[in-house]
Amino acid sequence: MTSRGESPPEGWVSHDGVLRAGVRVQDFVARAQRIVGTCRHDGCSRRLVLQPQELQRQGLGQLNIGDVKRLHMCQRIGGCSLSFHHDPPERPLRLAHCLGKPFVRIRVACRGTGCRFHRVWKVEEMIAGLVKRGQGDHATEIYGLGARMTSPCPLCKRANWRVDVIWANTDQMGWKARGEEYLVDLAQKRLED
Ligand SMILES: [Zn+2]
Ligand SMILES: [Zn+2]
């Protein structure tokens, strides 16, 4: 088995260096995130709450949540219009989860079409900045932070931000050889997704 360096917090996975919410049942358990489905098909008003914890108890923790959703489709002639909504996680990713990790950065990027403006912060700097402006602290939720930032982008003049966690694989040569510089490159290279 190849080692991947230090693993991200439970419930989160690194996609080539950018953290994303994991899509397995066990990831939803780790984030304490509820999933509600509602069918709005003609004559059907079925509503259901998926229970990731229960599925995990049955040994299905590795299952992809998309497959679980498909298994819950209504068996009706004429099809099913079940659509799912994810509640906000009760255990979200917070800045504190990333503290004391030299291989982690917070990336603030403009979401404007064609705009590539972004800044990369050390977690400690990010927290200090939030505290100074009275906008947050170490307990601040990372995904959700972007929507609360109101200063306009210096390039496209709009406030349309997203905040991501850049999490380097410390076993990779790039990190070992180039450290800081590697992280900055990684943050830029993975700007599109
Ligand atoms: Zn239905
Ligand atoms: Zn911009």
List the helices and strands and how they pair.
Layout: E1 12-15, E2 18-21, H1 25-31, E3 35-39, E4 47-50, H2 52-57, H3 65-71, E5 82-86, E6 104-110, E7 118-122, H4 123-132, H5 145-148, E8 161-167, H6 173-178, H7 180-189
Antiparallel strand pairs: 1-2, 3-4, 3-5, 6-7, 6-8
The structure holds zinc ion (ZN) (2 copies).
One zinc ion (ZN) binds at residues 110, 112, 115, 117, 153, 155-156.
Structure commentary:
The protein is of the alpha+beta class and 193 residues long. The protein folds into two domains: 4-22 and 92-192, no CATH class; 34-86, no CATH class. The protein contains seven helices and eight strands, in the order E-E-H-E-E-H-H-E-E-E-H-H-E-H-H. The chain has helices spanning 25-31, 52-57, 65-71, 123-132, 145-148, 173-178, 180-189; strands spanning 12-15, 18-21, 35-39, 47-50, 82-86, 104-110, 118-122, 161-167. Strands 4-3-5 form a three-stranded antiparallel beta sheet, with no helix packed on it. A three-stranded antiparallel beta sheet has the order 7-6-8. Strand 6 (104-110) and strand 7 form a beta hairpin. The radius of gyration is 19 Å and the shape is globular. It starts with 11 loop residues before the first strand and ends with a helix. 22% of the residues are buried. The site of one zinc ion has 8 residues, from loops.
